[in-house]
Specification:
By secondary structure, the protein is an alpha+beta fold. Mean pLDDT is 76; it is low at 1-143 and 298-303.
Length: 787
C-alpha cells in the first residue's frame, strides 16, 4: 500500500495542471481538471467519506449571497484574528480541534459538493489525497481545488432555463443548487464572521473562501502595487555589456557618403511642391481680415475690440444740474408737462437752485453789481432767480452750448488712465545713515562776536582759520580772533560794506572790501616783517599800465591815502567779490552793470580786464574753478554758465536751474559739484559731469536763501536764510563716477533774532580746518557753531 502511494505521488508531480477560475469577474479563464489514473483502496474511500461528512457540517451555504470584494475589506489583518477566534469557538466547546483537522475541513470543498449532489466518483479517496499533495506543492492557491464544470467556453446563459449548469469530468450533470431565501442568507452571513472573505463562483456554482495570502495579494493589487511583495519595481539596472575590455567600437564600418550630401529625393519632393504651389494646385487658406472698426465709447461687450486699441476710458458723466436748470432743459426739450410736473418735488423752494426760492436766497442789485466786478473764476456760477409758476420758466439759454461742449469733450478731450499702486509710503523714503555716524558737524552755538552796530552783511575767514573778517551795514570792517572772540582791528568807512574777501594765500594777509562803487584792498598787518614788505610793495601804485578803452570806461585805480591800500572805483555799485585760488586775480560783480557787470583785476600788475564774452542777463555772483586755471563760472538771475577764459568762446556748459531768481552759489572743493541758492527758499545741487539739470532740489527754507557754502575738507555744506535759520547738510561726493552723491540733512541752527527789517541770517562761512560754522545776522551778531 505504501509503495502504491509513493508511486502515485511521483506521478502526480509530473501531471500538468491549469488554473482554476474562482469567479468570472476575477478569473475569466477556465481550468481543466487533473485526471489521475490510480487504484484506490476501500480504506482510503472511507477516510474520504469521513472528510466529506465533516465538511457537510460546516458553515458553507451554497445558496447564500455572493460576497463582494472592496478595498476596505483588505486594509488590515484584524479580520484574520477575529476569524480565527470565532472559528475556534464554533468548532467545539472543548477547544481540542487541531490545525490538521481545520486544514482538512478547508480543503474538502470539492468533496462537499459531490456529496450534496449525490454523485461520488470512483477512487475519490486517492484522488482527494493526491489533489491535496498537488495543492501543497503548487505555488498558486488556485490549484488547490480542481474545477468541476467542464463545459469549456460555452456561456452559462445557455443554462439559465435548465436545471443543471454543466457536466463534470465523468459526464454527469451538475445540478443547480436551490437558492436560499434572502432572509436566511442574510442571517447566515451575520453569523459567519468569515463572510467578508467568501466569493461566489458562478462557473462551478459554489462559494470559495479566500486565504490570507490571497487577500493580501488582492489588497496589493487594489492599491496599484505589485501582486507579490517580494517583487522590486525599482531594482538596480544591471549593465550586461562589459565596458572594461571594450577596445574596439561596436561598428567599425566607415561613415556612408549619404550622410554628408543632401538627399536628392527630398530635393525632388520640394521642387514638386514648389511647382504645385506656383500652378495653384496647392492653395493656402488666407486669414480673414477683421474690420478695423470699434466703438469709441462702447459698452462692456466690445472688450475684445478695446484690448487691441487704446485703454478703454469711459466718458465722463455730466454734472448734475440744479432744479431750475433741469426744468429749463425739460421745457427747451419739449418734454410733456405731465412729466415735468412729476419733477415738481425737485424744485421745492428750500434751496437757492429752486425755481421759487426763499427771499433770503435772492441777491440784491448791489450784490449782482459786485459779482460783475469779480474775476470770472471767483464769480458764482449760478445766480438764483424767482418765478411765480412753472409756466413762467423760460427755456434754458445754455442748452445748445453745453450740448456742443459735451460733444467736443467726448471726442477731442485727451484722457489718460493712471494706474494706482498701493505702496507703503515709508518704503519710498530713502534709507539714510544715522546722524551719529556722520559726526562731527556743527550743532550748538559756542561763541558770539559782538561789536557791530548794524547788520553784519559779509564774513570771510583767513586760510589759517585763526582770524575772521566781517563787514557791516554800519560801514565798519572788523577782524576777530576766532578762539577768543577778541576784536583785533577796525576800519570805518562812509558807506555800508557789501562784501569782504580774504586772500587765499597765507603769505599775503590782505583783505578786499566792497562798498558802493569802490573796491578797497586793505593790509591787515598780520604777517611777518618780510611779508609786510612784500605787501607794501604790492599795494604801492607806481606807473600804472594803460588800460583798454573798454576797461578804462568801467574802472580806475587809485591810491587809498586813508588806510594805505588800493582803491578801485567802478562805474556801478559792487555787490560781490571773489579771489582766484592763486591769489593774484580778483573778480568783481556789478549787478546793475548788465553786459559790463563782471570784471577781473590782476593785483600784481595793477590791471583790469573785461571779460571777452557776451553777458546774457544780470550777473549775481561769480566763482573761479578750484583746479582748472581758466574755468570761470557766472550766475545770472536765471541760469548758471561755465566759461573757459583761455579759449574766449561760447560757454562750455549752461546749467538750467529752473529757479525764480538766484541769490548765491558755492562750488565743491573737488570742482565737479555746485550748489545754487535762490530767493524762493530752494537749493539746487548740480553734478556738472552728469547733467545740466539739478541732481537734487531741496526745499527747506520758507524765505529767501541769502548764502550757501561748502566746507574745504569735511563733507559738509550749509545754507542760511532770512527766516533766521541755517541748515547744515552732509554732502559726500564719491570718487566712483557711477555712484551718486549722498545728501543727508543734519541740523537746523537757530539763535539769531529777527530784526525789524526781517532779514534774518545774511551770510554763513565754514572754518577752513574745523567743522565749525560762522553765521552773520541782521541783529549785528556773529555766531560760531561747533560740534
Amino acid at each position: 500500500m505504501t509503495k502504491k502511494k509513493s508511486q502515485a505521488a511521483n506521478e502526480d508531480q509530473t501531471i500538468e495542471t491549469n488554473k482554476k477560475s474562482v469567479s468570472p469577474a476575477l478569473k475569466p479563464q477556465k481550468e481543466k481538471p487533473v485526471v489521475a489514473k490510480q487504484v484506490k483502496s476501500s480504506k482510503e474511500e472511507e477516510d474520504l467519506l469521513l472528510d466529506s461528512d465533516s465538511g457537510a457540517d460546516s458553515d458553507y451555504d451554497g445558496d447564500s449571497l455572493s460576497g463582494s470584494l472592496n478595498s476596505d475589506d483588505f486594509d488590515s489583518d484584524i479580520f484574520d484574528s477575529e476569524d480565527d477566534a470565532s472559528q475556534r469557538e464554533t468548532e467545539g466547546g472543548d477547544g481540542e480541534a487541531s490545525e490538521d483537522e481545520l486544514h482538512g475541513h478547508e480543503g474538502s470543498d470539492d468533496d462537499e459538493v459531490d456529496s450534496e449532489n449525490g454523485e461520488e466518483e470512483d477512487g475519490s479517496d486517492d484522488e482527494g489525497s493526491e489533489e491535496r499533495e498537488v495543492a501543497e506543492e503548487s505555488d498558486s492557491s488556485e490549484d488547490e481545488v480542481a474545477p468541476r464544470n467542464t463545459v469549456g467556453d460555452v456561456p452559462l446563459e445557455w443554462y439559465k432555463d435548465e436545471k443543471h449548469i454543466g457536466y463534470d469530468i465523468t459526464g454527469k450533470k451538475i445540478t443547480k443548487k436551490e437558492k436560499q431565501d434572502k432572509l436566511d442568507s442574510f442571517l447566515a452571513t451575520m453569523d459567519d464572521s468569515k463572510n467578508w472573505r467568501k466569493i461566489y463562483d458562478e462557473y462551478n456554482d459554489e462559494e470559495v473562501e479566500l486565504t490570507k495570502e490571497e487577500s493580501k495579494l488582492i489588497r496589493r493589487m487594489l492599491k496599484g502595487e505589485a501582486p507579490h511583495a517580494d517583487f522590486d519595481p525599482y531594482a538596480p539596472y544591471v549593465d550586461w555589456f562589459k565596458w572594461d575590455d571594450a577596445i574596439h567600437p561596436l561598428s567599425s564600418a566607415p561613415e556612408p557618403k549619404r550622410r554628408f550630401i543632401p538627399s536628392k529625393w527630398e530635393a525632388k519632393k520640394v521642387v514638386k511642391y514648389v511647382r504645385a504651389i506656383r500652378k495653384g494646385l496647392i492653395k493656402f487658406d488666407k486669414p480673414e481680415e477683421e474690420p478695423n472698426v470699434y466703438l469709441l465709447w462702447g459698452d462692456d461687450s466690445t472688450s475684445d475690440q478695446k484690448s487691441k486699441h487704446l485703454t478703454y476710458i469711459p466718458p465722463p458723466k455730466l454734472k448734475l444740474p440744479g432744479s431750475v436748470t433741469y426744468l429749463f432743459i425739460c421745457f427747451s426739450s419739449r418734454i410733456p408737462f405731465s412729466e415735468v410736473f412729476n419733477l415738481y418735488n425737485l424744485a421745492f423752494p428750500g434751496h437757492e437752485e429752486s425755481y421759487n426760492p426763499s427771499l433770503e436766497y435772492i441777491p440784491t442789485e448791489e450784490e449782482i453789481a459786485a459779482y460783475e466786478l469779480m474775476f470770472e473764476e471767483d464769480r458764482p456760477k449760478f445766480i438764483p432767480k424767482r418765478f411765480t409758476s412753472l409756466r413762467s420758466i423760460p427755456a434754458y439759454e445754455n442748452a445748445l452750448k453745453e450740448l456742443f461742449a459735451r460733444c467736443l469733450d467726448l471726442y477731442l478731450c485727451p484722457r489718460v488712465r493712471k494706474k494706482r499702486i498701493n505702496i507703503d509710503p515709508e518704503s519710498l523714503k530713502p534709507k539714510l545713515p544715522s546722524r551719529k555716524d556722520l559726526r562731527p558737524y556743527p550743532n550748538s552755538c559756542y561763541l558770539e562776536y559782538k561789536g557791530h552796530t548794524g547788520a553784519v552783511t559779509s564774513l570771510s575767514p583767513d586760510c589759517s582759520g585763526q582770524w575772521i573778517a566781517s563787514g557791516s551795514a554800519d560801514g565798519s570792517v572788523r577782524i576777530w580772533e576766532v578762539e577768543t572772540g577778541r576784536c583785533l582791528k577796525v576800519w570805518q568807512f562812509k558807506e555800508p560794506v557789501k562784501c569782504v574777501a580774504w586772500n587765499p594765500l597765507p603769505d599775503f594777509p590782505i583783505l578786499a572790501v566792497a562798498m558802493g562803487q569802490d573796491l578797497v584792498i586793505l593790509n591787515t598787518e598780520l604777517g611777518t616783517d618780510e611779508e609786510q614788505q612784500k605787501i607794501e610793495e604790492l599795494l604801492r601804485l607806481g606807473s600804472l599800465p594803460e588800460l583798454d578803452e573798454s576797461a578804462a570806461a568801467i574802472v580806475s585805480w587809485h591810491q587809498d591815502e586813508t588806510f594805505g591800500g588800493i582803491k578801485i572805483r567802478h562805474f556801478k555799485n559792487v555787490s560781490f567779490v571773489d579771489w582766484h585760488p592763486r591769489g593774484d586775480y580778483l573778480s568783481a560783480v556789478m549787478s546793475a552793470g548788465e553786459t559790463r557787470g563782471v570784471v577781473i583785476h590782476q593785483l600784481s600788475v595793477h590791471k583790469t580786464q573785461r571779460l571777452p564774452i557776451k553777458m546774457r542777463g544780470l550777473p549775481v555772483c561769480t566763482l573761479f574753478h578750484p583746479h582748472h586755471r581758466g574755468m570761470f563760472i557766472i550766475a545770472t538771475k536765471k541760469n548758471v554758465r561755465v566759461f573757459n577764459l583761455q579759449k574766449k568762446e561760447l560757454p562750455i556748459k549752461k546749467l538750467e536751474t529752473g529757479l525764480r531768481e538766484i541769490s548765491s552759489m558755492a562750488i565743491h572743493p573737488g570742482g565737479d559739484n555746485l550748489i545754487v541758492g535762490s530767493k524762493e527758499g530752494k537749493m539746487c545741487w548740480f553734478d556738472m559731469d552728469l547733467s545740466s539739470k539739478p541732481y537734487k532740489t531741496l526745499k527747506n527754507h520758507p524765505k529767501d536763501i541769502t548764502n550757501v557754502a561748502f566746507h574745504r575738507s569735511y563733507p559738509l555744506f550749509a545754507s542760511c536764510s532770512e527766516d533766521s535759520t541755517a541748515y547744515v547738510f552732509h554732502g559726500k561726493v564719491y570718487s566712483d563716477l557711477n555712484e551718486n552723491p549722498l545728501i543727508v540733512p543734519l541740523e537746523i541752527l537757530r539763535g539769531h533774532s529777527t530784526s525789524s527789517s526781517n532779514r534774518g541770517v545774511l551770510d554763513c562761512k565754514f572754518h577752513p580746518r574745523q567743522p565749525w560754522l560762522f553765521t552773520a545776522g541782521a541783529d549785528s551778531v556773529i555766531k560760531l557753531y561747533c560740534h
